[in-house]
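Record type: monomer structure entry
Structure origin: computed from sequence
Chain ID: A
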Amino acid sequence: MKTELHCHTNISDCPLSIEEVLELALAQGVSHLAITNHDTTKGLKEAVETGKRYGIEVIPGIEMSGFDFERGRRVHILGYFIEPGHDGIETICQPLVNNRHRASEEMVERLIAAGYKITWERCKEIAHGGTGVYKQHIMHALIEAGYTDSIYGPLYKKLFNRGQNGEKPGIAFIPMEYMDAKTAVQAILLAGGVPVLAHPGQYGNFEMVPDLVEAGLQGIEVWHPLHDKKHEEQAKQLARKYDLIMTGGSDFHGEYGEKPVLIGSKSPGMETFEALVARRERTGKKESSK
């Protein structure tokens, strides 16, 4: 049996439906699958029920987009066993979801003005069934129009480059406003979930761990496709120091992923799932006693 603790569907920025994801999980021997779409709990209740038909336990989850304002870095927080539709999450996530969709529309308008033959209508069609249009959906439209043959590559960097290290921002780059990562941790706890720091090596989030622990962080993602051995060791050291659960996941996005990965390829084992369950019970009792 395998656990997969970081997986997306077409609710956010993966082209595959929950049923298609479950088919792949079944083929890889995954018995426990966390659905962690970005900034939304949409579809989680249905995913749990659909999982039962496949003999797979679907863990209702989320990946919240936060920010470390002290260091100017993005921070993603995973939440496991959250209550779908919980007001504490919806209240702070829905504005971000709406802003992301509006920003994507402006990105497309800029690209059209620059001569790219794509349409906003087609981007919305590609993103149908989800919470809105992402950059990956825009790139999908650009692939269809013959401008590139991959989601990530020279064109993506040219259009969406953030302008860091003295580089000029891409013509379609629009900065987003994110919530404080500590707020994301607290919202997940309020929704009955277990907050875990996602891929700290990707965004350089190791220094923020003490602040996140103070806010209620319960775990850290050690095994991830974008982590090297050094990242894994840093995460393990922090896990030991702060009594954090060591988790891992493939961060599956299907064809929209930065690296080709198999569901369950970064499985941390059933002991991690059991540790998350135990921590949920422990933190839940703490919250109810307040």
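Annotation 1: The two ends are 37 Å apart (CA to CA).
Annotation 2: The chain has eleven helices and eight strands.
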